[in-house]
Amino acid sequence: RLEEEKCKPLPHNFEEAITLTGVGWFHYKLLLICGLCFMAVMVEIMGVSLIMNQMECDLKPTLEQQGILASAGFLGVVLSSHAMGFLADTWGRVVTLRYAVVLSVICSTISGFSVNIWMLIVFRFMTGFFISGCQACVFSLCGEFHGNGSRVRHVTLLSGFMCVAMMFAPSMAIGILPLQIHMFGMHISSWRILLIGDVSVSVLALVGLFIIPETPKYDLIQGKDELALETMRKMFAQNTGRPSSEFPVHRLILQSGKSGASLSNVHGFCDAVRLIWSQTVPLFYRSRVFHTLNICLIQFLIYGMAQGIFMWFPTILDVMGSRENGDSLMCTVLQSLPPANTTDVVGMEHEEICHIDVDVSTYELMVTIGGCFTVIFVIFAYTIDYIGKRNLIMGWMALTIISLVALHWVQIFVLVVICLTVTMAIGNCGGLVSTVAMEFYPTNINAMGMCFIMMVGRLGAVVGSNVLGRLFFSNCDTVLWALLALVILMSVMAFFLPEQRRKLSSLSTELPVSAAVTAPTTPILSVLSSSK
Questions:
Q1: What sequence ranges are listed for the domain Major facilitator superfamily (MFS) profile (predicted)?
Q2: What HEC string does 155-167 produce?
Q3: What does 18-61 look like in DSSP terms, one character per residue?
Q4: According to the model, what pLDDT value does residue 302 have?
Q5: Which of 8, 167, 252, 260 is paired with 276 by a 20 to 30 Å CA distance?
Q6: Using an 8 Å Cβ cutoff, are 130 and 80 in contact?
């Protein structure tokens, strides 16, 4: 019997096993698919801000209705994020994403055929409601296929697809909005074609979701050890080009000792409520409550500030660029506008409008800005392990502080655009904060944690897009000083973000690998030592 025990292969924990699969073709394919999912969220929500002027002829919205429309997608994301996190942790990351993307594609396509403004608002809300799964579940999906050595870099690269979306959506607008389209003897408004065209990203993401498996970490938490091992063998074969039979891992053990929740345990409404509660409460355990609240508040402020500026960015550029005297202070220009101008931009007499000319210069500038942001994220991805997530966040916030101060005195139009862009780019820090959260929450509540903080972030985007723009036109100087104070506050809060300590490599030289990995988080080591 002793000889049988010796011949039995030693078990590996998840971190050891996933590291042995390597990083290669499978992970690059995974990054593209997850990136398309994340892009789909941004394109669907951002696409509405690009059609505001063009859809006036058809739907004749009031200013208030346009404000509701701008927030509808974000509100849908806010209301469904908690449910999406619950489903991802209990039903599976991939399955949840597949259904979410299918339903969002249907709703988005129908919105392109809206006959009135309220139909458009309702279906954009439903699109946001279903597409929300793609904004947070993808971080868990991507991160759980990686070991500690490559996880942070790939999740940061995944966040960079937000910037790719900032190039894609305006590029689609440049190519489609100026068109005069006639089919079957009818005139079809180009903004409808744009909304339907934006669905292409979601369709590509959906195709990709059907060619990747469930994460092995989720399967392991659910007690499906053999399925998790089979997935790792396929990853090993795709990454190395070697047969899956050569994968050196034959047995897996659960590190945390905690199994995940499953929808198979739900037999009624009360069971569902108890399961949702059991998945939510751990986010606020004494050991996590400070970090959870800190992350949520930072995300709320980041997305509120970034989206609030982005939503009104084209309008501000148009107003600044139309000044005959050229360079001037941004606040002087915005506050000199009569109150009617801020509404007349979007509330003109519809009876006199039958066609609105499309100025693509603003979209071209947005494409350029998206390209710059993409480069920034690539730099982040390849320096984050050396500089640290907290240091990168605080460094970018320092640049934001400089830009906000400069906006009080800079008069040259190009410099105003640069400072405003850097300020708006604080949204990039949202991806870094999401990376921090993804590492902080354990697997059994990871998707719930990610969806919860992203829900709070999108709530900030709703508040920012409705409040910040209007204040810019009435109290610009006060708003800039208030934003400066908030960024300083966020810099202090960022200092207290949890940072995973990367001392595993040094531990592994002194202890067996399994002990080095599990010692900080599980009681396995003490059991082994007592048995000796």
A1: 30-502
A2: HHHHHCHHHHHHH
A3: HHHT-SSHHHHHHHHHHHHHHHHHHHHHHHHHHSTTTTHHHH--
A4: 92
A5: 252
A6: yes
3-class DSSP string for 182-214: EECCEEECHHHHHHHHHHHHHHHHHHHHCCCCC
CA 318 to chain centroid, in Å, comes to: 28
**Domain 282-333+361-500, CATH among 1.20.1250.20, 3.30.70.1120, 2.30.110.10, 1.10.3720.10:** 1.20.1250.20
Rounding to the nearest 10 degrees, give the CA dihedral for residues 270, 275, 278, 281.
-80
Sequence-distant (6+) residues with CB within 8 A of 175 are none
Tell me the pairing of strands 252-253 and 12-13: parallel
What pLDDT was estimated at residue 530?
A: 36
> What pLDDT score does 483 carry?
92
Residues 6+ apart with CB under 8 A from 85: 136, 137, 279, 447, 448, 449, 450, 451, 452
Give the global pTM.
Answer: 0.74
| CA gap 194, 212 in Å, rounded | 29
Q: Is the pLDDT of residue 76 over 60?
A: yes
SS3 135: helix
Q: Give the count of beta carbons closer than 10 Å to the beta carbon of residue 234.
A: 15
Q: What is the pLDDT of residues 12-26, one digit of tens each?
A: 788 888 888 888 899
Q: Are 396 and 443 in contact (CB under 8 A)?
A: no
**DSSP run (H or E) holding 399:** helix 389-406
Q: Which one, of 133, 192, 148, lies nearest residue 15 by Cα? A: 148
Q: What is the pLDDT of residue 185?
A: 67
CA-nearest of 275, 295, 292 to 283 is 292
**Domain residue spans of the chain:** 9-251, 282-333+361-500
Q: For residue range 453-483, what is the model confidence (pLDDT) as tens digits?
A: 878 887 888 788 778 767 877 788 888 899 9
